[in-house]
Amino acid sequence: MTPLIKVDTEKCNNCHSCISVCPVKHCMDGSGDKIAIIAERCLGCGRCIAACTSGARSINDDTEAFFSELDARTQMVAMIAPSAVAVFDDLFRLIGFLKSCGVKAVFDVAFGAELTAKSYLEYARKENPKLIISQPCPAIVNYCELYAPNLIPYLAPMHSPMLHTAIMIKYFFPQYADAKIVVISPCAAKKREFEETGYVDFNVTMTRFKTVLKQRGINLYDYSPHDFDGPMAERAVSFSSPGGLKSTILRDAPALGPRIRRIEGTFMVYKYLNDLPRMVGEDMAPFLIDCLSCFAGCNGGPGTENFSHPVALMETKIEARLNEQARRNKIIFGINRVKGEVNRYWRPEIYGRVYKDRSKNLSGYLVPTNKDLAVIYQKMKKTSEADFLNCAACGYGDCRSMAEAIFNKLNRPENCHHYLKKEVDERLQEHKSILEYVRDGIFLLGKNWCILPSYSSALEEIFRRDMLAGLPIMDVFSGFLDKKKLTEIEAFIERAFNMSIPDSEVQNDSPLREIEAHFASLDGGFDMCRLNFVVERIGDGKTIQKLLVIVREADSKTKKTSALQAEKLTKPIFKFIDSGNGVNYFYKNEMLKDLMTEIAEKTLPVCANRPEGQYEPERFTFNARPDADNLHVSCRHDGTGLDMDKIIAQAVSTGLITEDAASKLSDQEKAAYFYRTEFLDIKEKLKTLSCHHLRFSNKKNYFQIDLVFSKKTVYPPPPPIGSFSYGSKPLDNTVHIGLPVENPLDLFNDPA
Fold first, then answer.
1. Is the peptide bond before 157 cis (omega within 30 degrees of 0)?
2. In the chain, N or C: fewer CB atoms in 10 Å?
3. pLDDT digits (tens, 9 = 90+) for 494-551
């Protein structure tokens, strides 16, 4: 079945406006990213065209084919619908243009409407039916054949005014027997009517016709006016307006007035038709229903683009022509001549129509059971009564109808407003959880260079301030960076927001990859740390809209992680100490525990070759062995050794040595600065705990600290017991320390 409406998928934005105005819904397929139309289920009412604000929908008519034939001078006859008066400024110059292009004759469909009224009255007189549903509107015929086949017996069994006109031409104007017939039409659905009946060759909508004229630079005022060929209409020129059929019939059968019901508009007419069987059963139905799918009748049809035009303005134009036609008929023919003309061209056997039950086109559509619906509701995240909003955002009007569409694979849960809200809430909660627990500082930087509201909680800890949302990033940076670095960063951000600069160039030039930050500390000094930034650009292909920034605080995170790892690593020795296993006389167990923790915290950050941000507890071990008088403790980190660069950088930063002097030190001399900077501050603790031997061993494949504590209460500790040696000389890169000492530098001299 030929599609009546075309969809431009490039323009469709899946807004569902088309579904919301569609009177049947079943022809709309919203299961994908774009709304498609199932042609064999579509009425062709055109409501979706008016509703589509993105211009993704248009009528599939025969305009291109018609103009191609016109240019080829194919023999043709034209018919113009009465609604043309509401669309074209000068109807008769339109006729003049068509004739100038070689069209042999132009007929007024309004006279076909006169014949239609005659057919209705003859059918009513002869058959006396219980109900007649008028059928000039092909969308209503399509509805009855597809969705309400029980109404087919009530459809008027005769053709529409357009087909009355076409049949009249075929029968009474043999000179045009070989001519193709084109209709200048306001309607999309007429194409299907013409294809099914075969009397008309081209359905050319008025809007598309005017578009071609404009494209070709044609002005109708450049053409002389011409009158219609064939018989002249009178009252039926108003057929295109709501109630036009009723008005024409009442001219000849005024007694039928109370028995004719006029109704139009998709939001009214189809609901009314659905209720008809009950009304017929209760003997409440009218005798004749003058019904049109479009609210403004054919004057506002989808092929007119008069969707938003005032109805009064359109009908004023129709009434003006009606008055003119009445005047001309009186002058030329006399008041009764119209009836004579109608009788001349009417035959009882040539204008009848037979309809088809096309409901099989819906055979694949199923009505879900309550059990089926329960499954669909779960997919739509509807678990309580409050979840059934019936908000109509999906286009179906209520949640059940949307669920039915999903069941029939005509839509998907993602198009449900409640589903999206739930999904967003869940994602926001996940996002919030991630931002709350992630260890990195993560934030978005807007085009105004301000921090956007959603950022990780770690960011406040890293930047040492709270309530960062909305703050200019340069104000934040100014709290811990110098002016030179701020200038570099400002230039970098400007480049980052410049779409013309490639990503690779932006990343290569980033001064934020590693910066040294100086934060004011509570004691009046400065807390120095290194920050590493990763910056990613987010855009729409045309502009950079925001920057995603990830910042890591290497030093602080190391210290924090070291403390956590130290707590884990020291548990075994704590358990050993607390067990009283040979050391129950050691009276300062808690102080010993604190010391072990401090050793771990100081040692872990400077172990070499460890993955950044990761600590492997199994590589750092504590061993304790008691004898009669002493507790021997060994702290060993396997597989790494010390990172000399970190140690010497720390010594330089604390002023213990200059960079130039540090560059001349051996690895053993560099290692000595670790003992000096990190262990001198625990010297007093070592003495208090009666530590009388301390040895550091720094090898390529391990780092080890050996301590010997007296289990007796001894203070001051005994003299140094001397150094351990392996063979004839000390172990390479091993420092032996005996306590106490007066000169701290003596701690780092190799034993004699």
1. no
2. C
3. 999 999 998 888 888 788 888 888 776 544 445 677 888 989 999 888 899 999 999 9
Task: Note the residue count of the chain.
Answer: 752
Question: CA 606 → CA 258, 478, 575, 646, 683, distances in Å?
Answer: 101, 30, 26, 6, 20
Q: Quick check: helix, strand or coil at residue 634?
A: strand
Question: What are the E-state strand segments in 206-348?
Answer: 260-264, 288-292
Distance CA 575, CA 148 (A): 85
The dihedral built from the CA positions of residue 64, 67, 72 and 76, taken in this order, carries a sign that is positive
411 and 20 in contact (C-beta within 8 Å)?
no
What pLDDT is attached to residue 608? 66
Q: How far is CA 131 from the centre of its chain?
A: 49
Taking CA atoms, 558 is separated from 379, 529, 566, 734, in Å, by 45, 10, 12, 26
Bridge partners, residue 703, by sequence:
637, 698
| pTM score of the predicted model | 0.62
- Does the structure show a pLDDT above 80 at 740? no
Q: b/e map of 68-80 (b: 16 or more CB within 10 Å)?
A: ebbeeeeebbbbb
Closest CA to 726 of 691, 697, 693: 697
- Name the pLDDT band for 160 (thresholds 50, 70, 90): very high
Buried b (16+ CB within 10 A) or exposed e, 711-748: beeeeebeebeebeeeeeebbebbbbbbbeeeeeeebb
CA distance 91 to 346: 26
CA–chain centroid gap for 433, Å, is: 23
Q: Where are the beta strands (DSSP E) in 93-226?
A: 105-108, 132-133, 180-185, 202-205
Virtual torsion, Cα 325, 326, 331, 334, nearest 10 deg: 120
DSSP state of 33: S
Which residues does 303 contact at the CB level (< 8 Å), separation at least 6? 46, 59, 61, 185, 186, 187, 188, 205, 206, 207, 208
pLDDT tens-digit series, residues 653-687: 777 788 888 888 877 777 777 766 666 566 667 76
